[in-house]
């Protein structure tokens, strides 16, 4: 089953996110389930997702989904800017809506860096650290 594309290639938030994400060693973008995914062997970031709410769901096309250390999840779950994305949340992922005008892009870089380090091969992490 082919999923419909759920993003615009010209979305300024996606363009800015690509500038962050694709700077990591070996990072590549591909489309899965209609959304941009970023990986180095395994996914470490996704643009767009959804959240279960009140028996339904809310689509958040401008969300950044990242894998989060177990020790960090509780703090992010207490932060109203973050949510547990459908399908990914039970596997340690959290999401932040980049459409918020108060988005701190330094924080976005830190979230992506942490997610990358949880999924990338050791040699790629060593290459990142050597930069």
UniProtKB/TrEMBL annotation:
Pfam families per record: YjbR
Mitochondrion as UniProt keyword: no
SUPFAM superfamilies named in the record: YjbR-like
Keywords, sorted A to Z: DNA-binding
InterPro entries reported in the protein's UniProt record: YjbR-like_sf, YjbR/MT2646/Rv2570-like
Keyword check for Cytoplasm: no
GO MF term list: DNA binding
Transmembrane segments: none
Name this polypeptide is given: Putative DNA-binding protein (MmcQ/YjbR family)
Phylogenetic classification of the source organism: Bacteria, Bacillati, Actinomycetota, Actinomycetes, Propionibacteriales
